[in-house]
Every structure is written in structure tokens, then in C-alpha cells.
Write a structure and sequence with these properties.
The protein is of the alpha+beta class. Helices cover 25% and strands 19% of the residues.
């Protein structure tokens, strides 16, 4: 069974053809590789009877397989809901489910875990697809109702339950919103049960998906499961300019990838003296102007002579700081200044195919045919 974006109007498949790698309707969102699938349980151990099931976008829940159905990854199943039933896709089975439960702090013997009814029948799938086809229209009408009621909220997504009796509206809002009248109007217009669920801007981006500035799909919609706080200190550690347009992602918040390399920068900075530490010499007081973390370079300038920078290594700067604390005299920074090797001037652009001119197509084309005819006319005739 393909996703909604992989099925065209005439019933033929397009996109990934149910292979799970199309990226158009979250087929590959938050997938987990079952690295315990080929391992056998030791004697006396019972297999885990819980399965992980993914619903629309990135919503995942765990259900108990009481009927001992032979489930495998990719199967569509009918599951128990608070009222009625829902349809989802199996994304994980076996012992790895226990690791996921521990990670999310869910008890395996909890009574709140619902159960799997059966494998989804064709009737269930048809009803589910009919409900999903209504989501775009229902979302549009719900937004119009919210605008008419002047509610400061944004309805970003709608998810229908498998049996079509309930719809969950995901919205974002900066402040508390009184949507009681909105629920009454939507229940009357759509004749279904309504549930409103507020999500953050990062959760909205993970549900909707998109392409980041790096050219790849958003991390939050493919593999990132938890959203850690990102502060401007992460950008300062990495010597990045505090430009909101470059540091913000599609959600409007700071990019989550700022935290990915933060530990490497913090580890490298442990060998550096404090940036605000001043170097006291007999020639004057020097202040740090710039650092190169991974090369271990620091540039200092004397007070009053800010245009002249002196290059020191982080070990040399730490040595001067230690001498200042021990009240040992330091003559000047020139004694410690490093000399960088001169840069080798290389070709910035190498003409490989003989077409190095960017405006070569703007030049008028020479008429070589007329030249050839003129050359033949001027050729001297041989005397017989």
C-alpha cells in the first residue's frame, strides 16, 4: 500500500512505489534500522509482544500484539483507539521495541498501552484513504473559520482517524487561545469529533517537512526525535556571526544543527586561555582580537595600536597568562610571534575545455564562409 502522494488519480503508483524512500509523504520519516532482527533470544526469554506503529507524519505509538499476529515492518494494521479504531503502519518489531520503550520511559506492562486488532482489510484501507483525502479541504475550511472568529492561531495540519469518526487539528499559537466556539462550528460543519492539539514551531516543521539550507531534508522530519534547546551561545562558541537570517531554520528558531558540532568546539577551547584575558607585557597590554580554534591560533593587539596584530599559539598565550599570574616579567609579544608560511599562489580557475570566457556567446558570430570565398577569389591562377 502506497502513501497518498504515491497514488495517482487513476490508481497507478508513482514516486517510491511503496519502497519507503520517496520523501514526498513522510515514508522515510524517523525510520529505525532493526539491528536485532537476525539475533535469536536466549533460552527461557519471551519475545516482546509490543510493536511500534507510525501514523501520519512522525506520530508513533506502541501497541500490544495480543493476537500473536505475524507482523513485519511495512504491514498496515487496525489498532485500538480511545473510541473506534485507527490504521497505521508497523515500523518496528522484536526486541528493539524494548529499547525504544526504555528510551521514552514507557513501562512495558503498562495498562495504558492499547492493542492491535487485526491486519487491515481492504474495507478498512478504503475508508482510511477516503478520510485522508478530506484532510486538505477540512484544513482549508478550518483556517477560514479561525480567521472569521479572529483567533490568533495557525492550523498547520489535520489528521483523521482510520475510521473517519475523529479528526485531530494541530495548531501553533504564541498565546492561549479560546477555541471553544471554533470547536462547535467545526463539529457542526464536519459532523465528526474534534480534538485540538497545540504543537511548537519545531514540531510543526517536523510534521510538514521540507528542504534545509544544506540541500537535504530537515533533520527533525527524518531522524531527529528530540528537540533540545539551542541558544546563541552555540553560535558564539563556533565563531559564527549572530545573523538571525542565517542561523534560523524553517521553523523560525535557531537551527538544531548548531548543537551537532558544539561538543567538538568546546573540547578544543579547553586548551585556550580565556578570550577576555589580557596579556600584560613591558611594552603594553594586549587584548585578543581573533582566534582560530582548530588551528590553535590567537591574534592579539596592543591597546592603542589596534591595527597591528600579533599571532600566537594557544600554548604561548597560556604561558604568558601563567607568567602574569606568577608576576614574572614578559618583554613583548614579538618574542612569541609566529610566522605563518607564505601562501602558495595557485590557479583559481583552470581552463580545461578551452572555454574560459563567460561572454563568449554574446560575441557576434564570425562569417567564416565569406572569408573562405574571398580567399579562393584572391588565389593566384597558374600559368599554363
Amino acid at each position: 500500500m502506497a502513501c497518498a502522494s504515491c497514488t495517482s488519480t487513476d490508481g497507478t503508483l508513482r514516486g517510491c512505489k511503496s519502497n519507503g524512500t520517496c520523501g514526498t509523504d513522510s515514508c522515510n520519516k524517523l525510520t529505525v534500522f532493526d539491528w536485532l532482527a537476525n539475533m535469536q533470544l536466549p533460552g527461557g526469554e519471551q519475545a516482546c509482544d509490543l510493536v511500534e506503529i507510525r501514523f501520519k507524519n512522525s506520530r508513533k505509538e506502541y501497541f500490544r500484539n495480543e493476537a500473536k499476529l505475524p507482523l513485519k515492518i511495512g504491514d498496515l494494521v487496525t489498532t485500538q483507539a480511545q473510541s473506534g479504531h485507527d490504521i497505521g503502519m508497523v515500523t518496528l518489531t522484536g526486541e528493539l521495541v524494548r529499547f525504544q520503550l526504555r528510551k521514552k520511559k514507557i513501562k512495558e506492562n503498562s495498562e495504558d498501552i492499547l492493542k492491535v486488532y487485526r491486519m487491515a482489510t481492504q474495507n478498512d484501507i478504503d475508508k482510511w484513504q477516503t478520510s485522508r483525502n478530506r484532510e486538505a479541504e477540512v484544513q482549508k475550511r478550518a483556517r477560514e473559520m479561525a480567521i472569521f472568529l479572529r483567533l490568533e492561531m495557525k492550523i498547520s495540519d489535520v489528521e483523521f482517524q482510520g475510521d473517519g469518526s475523529k479528526a485531530t487539528f494541530y495548531y501553533t499559537a504564541e498565546n492561549r487561545v479560546d477555541f471553544r466556539q471554533l470547536i462547535k462550528d467545526m463539529a457542526q460543519a464536519f459532523s465528526i469529533r474534534i480534538e485540538m492539539r497545540q504543537i511548537g514551531l519545531r514540531q510543526e516543521a517536523s510534521r510538514l517537512g521540507g528542504i534545509g539550507s544544506c540541500g537535504r531534508e530537515l533533520c527533525c522530519s527524518t531522524w531527529l526525535t528530540d528537540f533540545r534547546t539551542v541558544s546563541t551561545a552555540a553560535a558564539r562558541y563556533q565563531q559564527l556571526s549572530l545573523n538571525p537570517q542565517k542561523l534560523a531554520g524553517q521553523c523560525g528558531k535557531l537551527k538544531c544543527c548548531l548543537n551537532f558540532e558544539l561538543d567538538a568546539y568546546r573540547k578544543a577551547l579547553k586548551s585556550f586561555p580565556k578570550i577576555d584575558a589580557k596579556l600584560h607585557t613591558e611594552k603594553g597590554i594586549a587584548v585578543c582580537q581573533k582566534i582560530d580554534i582548530f588551528k590553535g591560533h590567537m591574534w592579539y593587539a596592543y591597546k592603542g595600536d589596534w591595527m597591528t596584530w600579533h599571532l600566537l599559539s594557544n600554548e604561548q598565550a597560556s604561558e604568558i597568562v601563567k607568567k602574569n599570574k606568577a608576576n614574572e616579567p614578559v618583554a613583548s609579544l614579538e618574542e612569541y610571534t609566529l610566522d605563518l608560511p607564505p601562501k602558495q599562489e595557485g590557479k583559481v580557475f583552470e581552463n580545461v575545455v578551452g572555454q574560459d570566457s563567460l561572454n563568449r556567446f554574446d560575441r557576434p558570430k564570425k562569417n567564416t564562409r565569406n572569408k573562405k570565398n574571398n580567399r579562393n577569389r584572391k588565389a593566384p591562377q597558374k600559368n599554363e
